[in-house]
Design a protein that fits this description.
The chain is of the alpha+beta class. 69% of the residues lie in helices and 12% in strands. The protein has six helices and three strands. It has a three-stranded antiparallel beta sheet with strand order 1-3-2. The termini are far apart.
Length: 116
Amino acid sequence: MKSDDMDSIFHALAHATRRAILDHLAGHPGATVSGVAARFESSRIAVMKHLRVLEDAGLVHSQKAGRERRLFFNVVPIQLIYDRWTDRYSSFWAGRMADIKDRIESRVSRKAADCA
């Protein structure tokens, strides 16, 4: 992966609205542009600009379906970045550390709920 490609991916992911669009597309593959725009308080034009940035970074693919455009989240660029800085050993331990973090946070939440 070229440095310019990674720059465009990190640029695309840096904006909260674009991350929210990706979250929506991950749960609703094939959503239309109108459907995505309806979820945000921004104008349709602003959402389309965000979609263009995401498409330029390769994070979103679109397909024409009649007069509509169907949008799909492409996880490959994120996986390539992940693969670049992790190996099997670090991936194993990162997963274990995330599990420990989740368990500690859930215990803290339960204790806080019990004390309330």
